[in-house]
Design brief:
By secondary structure, the protein is mainly alpha-helical. A three-stranded antiparallel beta sheet has the order 2-1-3. It is built from twelve helices and three strands; from the N terminus they run H-E-E-H-E-H-H-H-H-H-H-H-H-H-H. The chain has two domains: 48 residues, no CATH class; 203 residues, MetI-like (MetI-like fold). Helix 8 runs antiparallel to helix 9.
Length: 316
């Protein structure tokens, strides 16, 4: 069977195998770098300090430093330091990150003012939810109007085209000044980051509606309101749903920036604190959790989309 062919889908078995490989290959590379000493391992983990006063068991030093001190000890005929190849502290091994998936939820924060991981995740989910829902409530109708009527297109899109190039984080200080220091400015950044793109994407999707549907409705005497609600909106629903799935991913990309505004909270604060304590296994675990959570939501939405629009050709 030919695995690579133009405009031809793989069979179910090979598709699943290739999908699994897309995740397995990065993990394999990560494992090789972590467990095979001669691949990288630019540092040495001290197991015996020997005669080197500032060496201690478990200390990570650059290989050049270890070699220099080893040569000095050898030259002076003193106790030789011992060590094993190691990666920097910011690159934990896969098994350490896997362990952190459990311990991050069960380890109590070092300070009372800090949040547990599940509390941080819940805070971030709320920011994403409200920012994206508010953006969709306003952005989708505006996009449909702009894509359907030239009047609204000329009224909305020129300014939106300008505004979408302005970076959302630039409005952080203004959002705090207007909305306070808690969750509201974070939600505002998610809103700004997705709303203007959303209007343009939805407008473009609306314009792609088959013109023959509009012509048939006009022939049957449909007026503006009927054309909009009984032809345009039903006609674009499957593509609109797919757009929303994609735009939700954009909202997640603004999360890290949004949570740095105002009071520190959410998964970003957890990652920042764990990095400060050099618990990089927790940092990796938290980052991967964001990816898993986002992918899970997308898969649920994809499954729901297949139930809502069974007549649509499957694209994945």
């Amino acid at each position: 069977m030919q695995l690579i062919a133009v405009n031809r889908k793989l069979d179910r078995g090979p598709r699943r195998a290739v999908t699994l490989a897309s995740f397995a290959l990065p993990v394999l590379i990560w494992a090789l770098v972590s467990y095979v000493p001669f691949l990288w391992h630019p540092q040495v983990e001290i197991t015996q300090s020997g005669s080197v006063s500032y060496f201690s068991e478990g200390l990570l030093v650059d290989r050049e430093v270890f070699d220099r001190e080893y040569d000095k000890a050898l030259e002076n005929e003193t106790a030789l330091p011992e060590g094993k190849p190691a990666n920097p502290v910011y690159l934990p091994a896969p098994h350490e990150v896997a362990t952190a998936f459990v311990t991050a939820f069960t380890t109590e924060p070092k300070r009372r003012s800090e949040s547990w991981l599940h509390e941080s995740l819940w805070s971030s989910i709320q920011v994403i939810f409200w920012g994206f829902v508010l953006s969709s409530i306003i952005g989708i109708p505006l996009g449909i109007l702009a894509g359907t009527y030239d009047f609204f297109s000329r009224l909305f899109e020129p300014f939106i085209e300008f505004f979408r190039y302005l970076p959302a984080p630039a409005f952080g200080a203004l959002a705090v000044a207007v909305l306070g220091i808690y969750q509201a400015p974070k939600i505002a950044i998610i809103f700004i980051g997705t709303f203007f793109q959303q209007v343009l994407v939805v407008a473009n999707t609306t314009r792609k509606l088959d013109p023959s549907l509009l012509e048939a409705a006009q022939t049957l005497g449909a007026k503006n309101k009927s054309m909009l609600f009984r032809v345009v909106v039903p006609g674009i629903l499957p593509d609109l749903y797919r757009d929303v799935r994609i735009l939700l991913g954009w909202a997640w990309t603004y999360l890290i920036v949004a949570e740095l505004i105002g009071t520190s909270s959410g998964i970003t604060w957890f990652i920042t604190q764990q990095a400060r304590y050099k618990n990089f296994d927790n940092v990796f675990a938290a980052i991967i959790m964001i990816g898993i959570l986002g992918l899970t939501i997308d898969l649920i939405l994809a499954w729901l989309g297949r139930r809502l629009f069974p007549w649509q050709k499957e694209t994945k």
